[in-house]
């Protein structure tokens, strides 16, 4: 794929959120760097033209033009795509965009998938049990164990558990699951991000990583055995480390990634760096047989239609999707 533009399938996300508008500006800015296939509502054509992006339109099932296209998956009435006003029809549309974009990648008509933000609650109205892109794609990827990683310039964080209630976390944590996440993170860093010898830190669960058992035995019972198992598998894994200090140690360069045990433990520091320092992060799904990235933010109903939403994270996600696809092709 060297010298050839990567074909990126983009699902446009919630039609009432910021996804379509930031996709229009991001794709216009990167038009010379990749071939975009945007899967969304027919109304995206107007947003694209306004951003200076001229794409031919087609229907689902039509051949995809070599230079990119808008695939009109829906033709929603204006009431179902009003900025900041989600509707059940918009929820079903989000799922349809994702299915169509995934189909292009699975069928070999696109090289990578980049997903604009969806509303999990709205999609779940159309697909009960839907909890997020990562879990849906994992199921579609043949059941392969995937890992959700947020990657910025300063800090990369992978999660052992994703979108589950905090009370469920302890029930899902096992030494085997933690070790598998560490190993998948190391492999993803090597294969997709070009880190030759990844150094992985593993966060503890309790304050001060349990303080030698004073605050629980989860570190000794769960995390310690997982780290030892990963090291036996050849991974430079260390920990458990106190969660209140391991992230700034990684951001300072001591580690290439941190494996966090649950969603907010890992994502709060990443998003703080993004908000305060502008270190735009990208959601990368490791372990899948195809490339998938997304921005590190949600649908932002409060910003939709105001012209104030930033496409910075989506641009970064698109660039990274293309870079990973090139790297995987070169490694074959």
Task: Note down, in words, how this protein is organized.
The mean pLDDT is 93. With 332 residues, the chain is of the alpha/beta class. Helix 1 packs across helix 2. Helices cover 41% and strands 18% of the residues. It is built from eleven helices and twelve strands.
Helix content: 40-55%
Structural class: alpha/beta
Q: Span from first to last CA?
A: 11 Å
Order of helices and strands: EHEHEEHEHHEEHHEHEHEHEEH
Largest sheet strand order: 3-4-2-1-5-12-11-6-7-10-8-9
What's the helix and strand layout?
Elements: E1 6-11, H1 19-29, E2 34-41, H2 44-50, E3 57-58, E4 69-74, H3 88-106, E5 112-115, H4 120-126, H5 133-140, E6 147-151, E7 156-159, H6 166-172, H7 175-193, E8 199-203, H8 218-232, E9 236-241, H9 243-251, E10 257-260, H10 263-277, E11 282-286, E12 292-295, H11 312-330
